[in-house]
Design goal:
By secondary structure, the protein is of the alpha+beta class. It folds into 2 domains: 41 residues, Arc Repressor Mutant, subunit A; 75 residues, Lrp/AsnC effector binding domain/regulation of amino acid metabolism (RAM) domain (Alpha-Beta Plaits). Helices cover 37% and strands 20% of the residues.
Amino acid sequence: MSRLDKIDRTILHELERDGRLTNIELARKVGLSTSACLRRVQALERDGTILGYRAIVNRDAVGNGFVVMVAVGLSRHLKSDQVEFERAMANAPEVRECHSISGTIEYLLRIEVADLAAYKLFHTEVLGTVPQVSSITSYIVMASPKDERG
């Protein structure tokens, strides 16, 4: 993405910090006129650099404050197994993130549920029923001192 200049990067940084900034506020922060700022934001949206805007939800407030990172190994390294596993994870609302990674395992999941009992149910009834899964290692998140996901 070397086509982004310093102003584009500043716009992206400010919008990542607060996606509800008005165009007037954003223009002031990046040192542009409102019309120039709006044109740049619209161009970033059009070219797919900005994919959308989201609310950052307090997971505790909605009852999903128990977070577990799960390392998942597959029994075979076939494309069809990957597709089936990814489909199963896409259909599981507890799975907030699914990353295909390199290393000794194939996937890293971010699971958000109400509590340990809810995670045990997910572990048994969802992950435990996917035939491609050969290993599951769970890491309970104790705190997230830095979390910049949007």
